[in-house]
From TrEMBL:
Keyword field contains Transmembrane helix: yes
InterPro entries: MFS, MFS_dom, MFS_trans_sf
Segments passing through the bilayer: 54-75, 82-105, 111-132, 139-159, 165-185
Topology in membrane: Multi-pass membrane protein
Localization terms from the record: Cell membrane
Coiled coil feature spans: none
Keyword Transmembrane helix belongs to the record: yes
Record-given protein name: Multidrug resistance protein
Keyword terms, alphabetized: Membrane, Transmembrane, Transmembrane helix, Transport
Domain Major facilitator superfamily (MFS) profile, chain residue ranges per copy: 16-186
GO molecular-function term, one example from the UniProt record: transmembrane transporter activity
GO CC term (a single one): plasma membrane
Protein backbone atom coordinates (compact mmCIF):
# COMPACT_ATOMS: atom_id res chain seq x y z
CA UNK A 1 0.00 0.00 0.00
CA UNK A 2 2.83 2.41 0.85
CA UNK A 3 4.51 1.95 -2.55
CA UNK A 4 1.29 2.69 -4.45
CA UNK A 5 0.68 5.82 -2.40
CA UNK A 6 4.25 6.97 -3.03
CA UNK A 7 3.84 6.35 -6.78
CA UNK A 8 0.55 8.27 -6.79
CA UNK A 9 2.18 11.15 -4.89
CA UNK A 10 5.13 11.18 -7.32
CA UNK A 11 2.79 11.30 -10.32
CA UNK A 12 0.91 14.18 -8.73
CA UNK A 13 4.16 16.06 -8.07
CA UNK A 14 5.33 15.48 -11.65
CA UNK A 15 2.00 16.75 -13.04
CA UNK A 16 2.14 19.81 -10.77
CA UNK A 17 5.73 20.51 -11.77
CA UNK A 18 4.94 20.06 -15.48
CA UNK A 19 1.98 22.43 -15.20
CA UNK A 20 4.02 25.07 -13.37
CA UNK A 21 6.86 24.81 -15.86
CA UNK A 22 4.57 24.94 -18.89
CA UNK A 23 3.03 28.13 -17.51
CA UNK A 24 6.46 29.58 -16.78
CA UNK A 25 7.79 28.62 -20.20
CA UNK A 26 4.85 30.29 -21.95
CA UNK A 27 5.08 33.49 -19.95
CA UNK A 28 8.86 33.82 -20.36
CA UNK A 29 8.61 32.91 -24.06
CA UNK A 30 6.32 35.91 -24.49
CA UNK A 31 9.13 38.07 -23.12
CA UNK A 32 11.30 37.88 -26.27
CA UNK A 33 8.76 36.68 -28.81
CA UNK A 34 7.92 40.27 -29.67
CA UNK A 35 11.46 41.42 -30.60
CA UNK A 36 11.29 40.55 -34.30
CA UNK A 37 7.72 41.78 -34.63
CA UNK A 38 8.47 45.43 -33.88
CA UNK A 39 9.07 46.54 -37.51
CA UNK A 40 5.82 44.91 -38.63
CA UNK A 41 3.91 46.45 -35.70
CA UNK A 42 5.43 49.87 -36.39
CA UNK A 43 4.28 49.72 -39.99
CA UNK A 44 0.78 48.51 -39.20
CA UNK A 45 0.12 50.86 -36.27
CA UNK A 46 2.01 53.85 -37.71
CA UNK A 47 4.20 54.42 -34.65
CA UNK A 48 7.85 55.33 -34.23
CA UNK A 49 10.56 52.92 -33.18
CA UNK A 50 10.82 54.76 -29.87
CA UNK A 51 7.15 54.11 -29.13
CA UNK A 52 7.27 50.53 -30.39
CA UNK A 53 10.18 49.77 -28.08
CA UNK A 54 7.82 50.26 -25.14
CA UNK A 55 6.39 46.84 -25.98
CA UNK A 56 9.68 45.34 -24.75
CA UNK A 57 10.93 47.98 -22.32
CA UNK A 58 7.54 48.33 -20.64
CA UNK A 59 7.29 44.56 -20.38
CA UNK A 60 10.61 44.27 -18.53
CA UNK A 61 9.86 47.32 -16.39
CA UNK A 62 6.46 46.07 -15.25
CA UNK A 63 7.70 42.52 -14.64
CA UNK A 64 10.49 43.89 -12.46
CA UNK A 65 8.17 46.23 -10.56
CA UNK A 66 5.61 43.51 -9.83
CA UNK A 67 8.12 40.85 -8.75
CA UNK A 68 8.49 42.15 -5.17
CA UNK A 69 4.71 41.90 -4.77
CA UNK A 70 4.80 38.15 -5.45
CA UNK A 71 5.62 37.38 -1.82
CA UNK A 72 2.68 39.47 -0.65
CA UNK A 73 0.32 37.59 -2.97
CA UNK A 74 1.80 34.21 -1.98
CA UNK A 75 1.03 34.93 1.68
CA UNK A 76 -2.48 36.21 0.96
CA UNK A 77 -3.81 33.59 -1.45
CA UNK A 78 -3.59 29.82 -1.81
CA UNK A 79 -0.76 29.11 -4.26
CA UNK A 80 -2.92 27.08 -6.63
CA UNK A 81 -5.48 29.89 -6.81
CA UNK A 82 -2.74 32.44 -7.35
CA UNK A 83 -1.21 30.44 -10.20
CA UNK A 84 -4.65 29.94 -11.78
CA UNK A 85 -5.38 33.65 -11.45
CA UNK A 86 -2.05 34.70 -12.96
CA UNK A 87 -2.42 32.34 -15.91
CA UNK A 88 -5.99 33.58 -16.45
CA UNK A 89 -4.70 37.16 -16.42
CA UNK A 90 -1.96 36.16 -18.87
CA UNK A 91 -4.63 34.68 -21.15
CA UNK A 92 -6.58 37.94 -20.92
CA UNK A 93 -3.47 39.99 -21.76
CA UNK A 94 -2.73 37.73 -24.72
CA UNK A 95 -6.29 38.09 -26.00
CA UNK A 96 -6.18 41.89 -25.65
CA UNK A 97 -2.89 41.97 -27.57
CA UNK A 98 -4.12 39.54 -30.23
CA UNK A 99 -7.21 41.59 -31.04
CA UNK A 100 -5.72 45.02 -30.32
CA UNK A 101 -7.26 47.60 -32.67
CA UNK A 102 -4.38 50.00 -32.05
CA UNK A 103 -1.00 50.37 -30.37
CA UNK A 104 -2.44 51.42 -27.00
CA UNK A 105 -4.41 48.19 -26.63
CA UNK A 106 -1.41 46.18 -27.78
CA UNK A 107 0.73 47.85 -25.13
CA UNK A 108 -1.91 47.24 -22.46
CA UNK A 109 -2.05 43.55 -23.40
CA UNK A 110 1.75 43.31 -23.18
CA UNK A 111 1.89 45.02 -19.81
CA UNK A 112 -0.79 42.70 -18.45
CA UNK A 113 1.33 39.75 -19.60
CA UNK A 114 4.36 41.29 -17.88
CA UNK A 115 2.56 41.52 -14.54
CA UNK A 116 2.09 37.77 -14.66
CA UNK A 117 5.76 37.10 -15.36
CA UNK A 118 6.72 39.24 -12.39
CA UNK A 119 4.55 37.14 -10.09
CA UNK A 120 5.01 33.70 -11.63
CA UNK A 121 8.80 33.52 -11.60
CA UNK A 122 9.12 33.66 -7.79
CA UNK A 123 5.84 31.77 -7.37
CA UNK A 124 7.03 28.76 -9.35
CA UNK A 125 10.32 28.57 -7.48
CA UNK A 126 8.53 28.72 -4.13
CA UNK A 127 5.94 26.12 -5.08
CA UNK A 128 8.64 23.74 -6.30
CA UNK A 129 10.47 24.22 -3.01
CA UNK A 130 7.29 23.25 -1.18
CA UNK A 131 6.20 20.24 -3.26
CA UNK A 132 9.57 18.65 -4.08
CA UNK A 133 11.23 16.53 -1.37
CA UNK A 134 14.52 18.00 -0.13
CA UNK A 135 16.63 15.24 -1.69
CA UNK A 136 15.27 16.03 -5.20
CA UNK A 137 14.93 19.80 -4.84
CA UNK A 138 18.23 20.75 -6.48
CA UNK A 139 17.44 18.67 -9.56
CA UNK A 140 13.90 20.07 -9.77
CA UNK A 141 15.04 23.69 -9.44
CA UNK A 142 17.76 23.03 -12.05
CA UNK A 143 15.23 21.58 -14.51
CA UNK A 144 12.93 24.52 -13.81
CA UNK A 145 15.75 26.96 -14.52
CA UNK A 146 16.49 25.31 -17.85
CA UNK A 147 12.86 25.30 -18.96
CA UNK A 148 12.13 28.83 -17.74
CA UNK A 149 15.21 30.21 -19.50
CA UNK A 150 14.51 28.24 -22.66
CA UNK A 151 11.51 30.49 -23.37
CA UNK A 152 13.44 33.74 -23.80
CA UNK A 153 16.25 31.88 -25.58
CA UNK A 154 14.08 30.50 -28.38
CA UNK A 155 11.67 33.45 -28.57
CA UNK A 156 13.52 35.47 -31.23
CA UNK A 157 14.12 32.44 -33.46
CA UNK A 158 10.54 31.22 -33.14
CA UNK A 159 9.15 34.69 -33.82
CA UNK A 160 11.38 35.02 -36.89
CA UNK A 161 9.92 31.82 -38.32
CA UNK A 162 6.35 32.82 -37.45
CA UNK A 163 6.71 36.32 -38.92
CA UNK A 164 8.05 34.89 -42.16
CA UNK A 165 4.60 33.45 -42.83
CA UNK A 166 2.10 35.23 -40.57
CA UNK A 167 1.14 38.56 -39.01
CA UNK A 168 2.56 39.76 -35.69
CA UNK A 169 -0.76 38.78 -34.11
CA UNK A 170 0.26 35.14 -34.47
CA UNK A 171 2.94 35.82 -31.84
CA UNK A 172 0.10 36.09 -29.34
CA UNK A 173 -2.19 33.51 -30.89
CA UNK A 174 0.36 30.72 -30.44
CA UNK A 175 0.41 31.42 -26.69
CA UNK A 176 -3.35 30.94 -26.30
CA UNK A 177 -3.73 27.14 -26.58
CA UNK A 178 -0.78 26.50 -24.28
CA UNK A 179 -2.12 28.96 -21.73
CA UNK A 180 -5.52 27.25 -21.84
CA UNK A 181 -3.82 23.85 -21.47
CA UNK A 182 -1.97 25.16 -18.40
CA UNK A 183 -5.25 26.35 -16.91
CA UNK A 184 -6.90 22.99 -17.57
CA UNK A 185 -4.03 21.15 -15.89
CA UNK A 186 -4.15 23.49 -12.90
Amino acid sequence: MGVKMAEKRNKKIILMMATLLLGSFITTLAETLMNNGLPMIMEETHISQMNAQWLNTGYMLVAGMVMPLATFFMHRFPLRHLFTATMSIFLLGSLVATFAPNFLFLLIGRLVQAMVVGINMPLVTNVLTIIIPAKNRGLAIGIAGIIINLGPAIGPTLSGVILEFYSWRMLFIILLPFTVLTLICT
